[in-house]
Amino acid sequence: MKIICIGRNYVEHIRELDGNDRIPEQPVFFMKPDTALLRNNAPFYVPDFSDDLQYETELVVRIGRVAKAIDERFAPRCYGEVGLGIDFTARDIQRKCIREGLPWEICKAFDCSAAVSPEFVSLEELGGDVQKLRFRMELNGETRQEGDASLMIFGVDRIISYVSQFVTLRIGDLIFTGTPVGVGRVKPGDHITASLEGRTLLDFEIK
Ligand code: MG
């Protein structure tokens, strides 16, 4: 399986990251390998290669049907379950990569950089419209991120249609749909929880 991540998909996050309102014309995506998966609310160990390891809480869509160059209107057939994830990012290294025009793998694709919730919930159970979902992340009991999928620049159907023009999506692939505003640093001893429509899906320690 593979993990597709969307960057710069919420205006307020672009502002905090880039200090401007430059909205991408097409979805921006990158990938993480399966070795990046951190499952079952296992603890995340802060790697020693970064001095600014940050969380990005994201709505994660699981692909349920093969999608190759799919039209946007048929994209809803390709998924039916959603969960939450943390796109862990070595921000200091990412800023260097951006500055030097280099690829992002070393700051985004490292081991355990993609925490995903043990549970994925059927979209039907959540009301059926992925763009109406809300999620919340707390660090040490304090709310840091509040996500509202209606504020995505590119919705899930557009993302699937766009990405599948280049990369075939297979059953079990995960799409991290981008982070809302409020990203920040984690350090050993921190505790992350995140809920989707009031259900706590992520609950783990930073070590
Ligand atoms: Mg992200």
Could you characterize the architecture of this molecule?
This protein starts with a strand and ends with a strand. The chain has a single domain, classed as Fumarylacetoacetase-like, C-terminal domain (Fumarylacetoacetate hydrolase, domain 2, Alpha-Beta Complex). It is globular, with a radius of gyration of 16 Å. The chain is an alpha+beta fold and 207 residues long. Strand 14 and strand 15 form a beta hairpin. Strands 1, 2, 3, 5, 6, 8, 9 and 12 form an 8-stranded mixed beta sheet that branches. A 4-stranded antiparallel beta sheet has the order 11-10-14-15, with no helix packed on it. Bound molecules: magnesium ion.
Order of helices and strands: EHEEEEEEHHEEEEHEEEE
Number of helices: 4
User: Whole-Å distance between the termini?
Assistant: 27 Å
- The averaged pLDDT comes out at 97
Number of strands: 15
Task: Please describe the structure with a list of short key phrases separated by commas or semicolons.
4 helices; 207 residues; four-stranded antiparallel β-sheet
